[in-house]
Design goal:
Elements (H helix, E strand, L loop, with lengths): L17 H5 L6 E3 L2 E2 L5 E2 L2 E10 L2 E8 L8 E4 L31 H10 L27 E3 L35 E2 L17 E3 L2 E3 L17 E3 L6 E2 L2 H10 L8 E6 L2 E7 L4 H12 L6 E2 L6 E10 L2 E11 L6 E3 L1 E4 L8 H16 L4 E2 L5 H20 L13 H8 L3 H10 L3 E4 L2 E6 L1 H13 L23
Parallel strand pairs: 9-11, 18-20
Antiparallel strand pairs: 1-4, 2-3, 4-5, 5-6, 7-22, 8-15, 9-10, 11-12, 13-14, 14-16, 16-17, 17-19, 21-22
C-alpha cells in the first residue's frame, strides 16, 4: 500500500528555552500568532502589556500593534516568536516645554490633530460656506440630477458654539479632554490597567457578551468567570443564584423613565441621570465594556439617557442607547452611543442616530455627536449623513424648470445635521466641485444607484408620528 501523504503541520513559533520565556516582560514587542477573520494564521507585531503565572504556566496579555484593542487577549508562550523579540528601551527624561513645570507632553490625540489639520480635502478648494453662490454642471456627461448651492438666510440658534469617531479634517478632534460628563475622551489616564480587559464574560438576559474593553466594575467581581446583570435594572451580581434572588424582588420590566416612542416592538425610554442615578451609572458601566477612548465619571446628573428596547412577552429588552447633555454649549446631541453586540449589523445603530436627530428637530436645533467617535460609530454616522443628505438632494424639484437649487443652511435646517457635518459629508462623497468661480454639487449615476440600493436595505426607520416628546428648557430648571 502506498503511504498516505503526511499532513502539513501548522506553522508554530520557533522553539525556545524557558530561560528565554522568562525574559519576556511588560513592554516587550514581538510577533504573536493569531487567527484572522479568514481563519488563517498570521504573526502580527504585538506588545506585552502584562504577564501572569497560573499554576506554573505563564500567560501574556498582548496588544496587536495597529489593531483595535478589542482584539487584545491572553496567550501562552508557544504563540510567541521569541527570535524576533524587541526589548523595551529605557526612556530618557524629556524636558518640559520651555523648561517650565506643568507643561503638557505630546499625546497621540494632539499629534493626530496636528496631522489632520494639514490634510486638504479631495478637491483643491476651500470648504464652501452657507453663503457660497454655485451653479451646476453634469459630471462626465452622465449626471442624473444636479443641485446648486446658493445663498440662504442663517438659522438662529440657541447654542453658543461647536464636540463617538471622526477623522476628517473638518471634524474637530479635541486636544484636551472635557472634564464633565459620564463618558468622555481622556487619553491622559490611559494607564496599563485601563488598557486591559478586566471582565471575562457578562450574562445579560438571554445573551452572553464578551467585553471588548476595560470597565471599572468593583475589583472583586473582575476575577469571576461570568458577571451577571439584571437586564431590566442593569444591577450587577456575582453569581446566578444572586441574580435569581434579585429577580424575585425586581419588579422592573422596562428601563425606568418615560416611554416617548413606540412603533411595533421598538420603544425608546427617556431616563434622567439625576432621577435614576443608579440605573444610569450601571448603564455607563455596561457601555464602557464596548466603548474605547472613554473615561467613566459617576456624575450622571447633567445627562439624559435614551434607551432603545425590543418588546416581547417577558418585557422590554435593551438593544442600545445614547446619552445627551441636558445643556450643551457646543451643539452636541449625542455624548455616547452604543448598540449592544448581539444587535449590531441589523440597522439599530442607524436607528439610534436617526432618533437623536428627530429629537433635535423637535427642539428646533442642529446637532452633532461628541468626537472622537469609535470606529464603528464613525462608519454609522458617515453612512447616516450620506443617506440623509442624498435623500434631500434627490427629491429636489425645480418649479421654474431650471436646475433645482438648495443651500448648505437649508440642508442643515431640514435634517438638523450640523452645517460642518453637511459640508464634510459632501466632501467625503466628492460631490463638491469648483467651476468658473462657483461651487457645484453633482450626483452621478453611480452615487444615485448606490444610494437607492442602500435605502432598499434600510428597513428600520423612525416614524415621527409615533414620537411623543416635549423638550425642556434646562437652563430654567436650576441644577437639573
Amino acid at each position: 500500500m502506498a503511504a498516505l501523504p503526511e499532513e502539513k503541520a501548522p506553522r508554530r513559533a520557533p522553539s525556545a528555552k524557558m530561560a528565554e520565556v522568562e525574559e519576556v516582560t511588560e513592554g516587550c514587542r514581538l510577533p504573536v500568532l493569531r487567527r484572522n477573520q479568514e481563519n488563517e494564521d498570521e504573526w502580527p507585531l504585538a506588545e506585552i502589556l502584562s504577564v501572569k503565572d497560573i499554576s506554573g504556566r505563564k500567560l501574556f496579555y498582548v496588544h496587536y500593534i495597529d489593531f483595535n484593542k478589542r482584539l487584545d487577549e491572553w496567550v501562552t508562550h508557544d504563540r510567541l516568536d521569541l527570535k524576533k523579540i524587541q526589548f523595551p528601551k529605557k526612556e530618557a527624561k524629556t524636558p518640559t516645554k520651555n523648561g517650565l513645570p506643568g507643561s503638557r507632553p505630546s499625546s497621540p490625540d494632539r499629534d493626530l490633530k496636528r496631522k489632520v489639520e494639514v490634510v486638504s480635502p479631495a478637491t483643491p478648494i476651500p470648504a464652501p460656506t452657507e453663503t457660497t453662490q454655485a451653479s451646476v454642471f453634469p459630471q462626465n456627461g452622465s449626471a442624473r440630477r444636479a443641485v446648486a448651492a446658493q445663498p440662504g438666510r442663517k438659522r438662529k440658534s440657541n447654542c453658543l458654539g461647536t464636540d463617538e469617531d471622526s477623522q476628517d479634517s473638518s471634524d474637530g478632534i479635541p486636544s484636551a479632554p472635557r472634564m464633565t460628563g459620564s463618558l468622555v475622551s481622556d487619553r491622559s489616564h490611559d494607564d496599563i490597567i485601563t488598557r486591559m480587559k478586566n471582565i471575562e464574560c457578562i450574562e445579560l438576559g438571554r445573551h452572553r457578551l464578551k467585553p471588548w474593553y476595560f470597565s471599572p466594575y468593583p475589583q472583586e467581581l473582575t476575577t469571576l468567570p461570568v458577571l451577571y446583570l439584571c437586564e431590566f435594572c442593569l444591577k450587577y451580581v456575582k453569581s446566578l443564584k444572586c441574580l435569581q434572588r434579585h429577580l424575585t424582588k425586581c419588579d422592573l420590566r422596562h428601563p425606568p423613565g418615560n416611554e416617548i416612542y413606540r412603533k411595533g416592538t421598538i420603544s425608546f425610554f427617556e431616563i434622567d441621570g439625576r432621577k435614576n442615578k443608579s440605573y444610569s451609572q450601571n448603564l455607563c458601566l455596561l457601555a464602557k465594556c464596548f466603548l474605547d477612548h472613554k473615561t467613566l465619571y459617576y456624575d450622571t446628573d447633567p445627562f439624559l439617557f435614551y434607551v432603545m428596547t425590543e418588546y416581547d412577552s417577558k418585557g422590554f429588552h435593551i438593544v442600545g442607547y445614547f446619552s445627551k447633555e441636558k445643556e450643551s454649549t457646543e451643539d452636541y446631541n449625542v455624548a455616547c452611543i452604543l448598540t449592544l453586540p448581539p444587535y449590531q449589523r441589523r440597522g439599530y445603530g442607524k436607528l439610534l442616530i436617526e432618533f437623536s436627530y428627530e429629537l433635535s428637530k423637535v427642539e428646533g436645533k442642529t446637532g452633532t455627536p461628541e468626537k472622537p467617535l469609535s470606529d464603528l460609530g464613525l462608519l454609522s454616522y458617515r453612512s447616516y449623513w450620506s443617506q440623509t443628505i442624498l435623500e434631500i438632494l434627490m427629491n429636489l424639484k425645480s418649479e421654474t424648470g431650471e436646475r433645482p437649487q438648495i443651500t448648505i443652511n437649508e440642508i442643515s435646517e431640514i435634517t438638523s445635521i450640523k452645517k460642518e457635518d453637511v459640508i464634510s459629508t459632501l466632501q467625503y462623497l466628492n460631490l463638491i466641485n469648483y467651476y468658473k468661480g462657483q461651487y457645484i454639487l453633482t450626483l452621478s449615476e453611480d452615487i444615485v444607484d448606490g444610494h437607492e440600493r442602500a435605502m432598499l436595505k434600510r428597513l428600520l426607520r423612525i416614524d415621527s408620528k409615533c414620537l411623543h416628546f416635549t423638550p425642556k428648557d434646562w437652563s430654567k430648571r436650576g441644577k437639573w
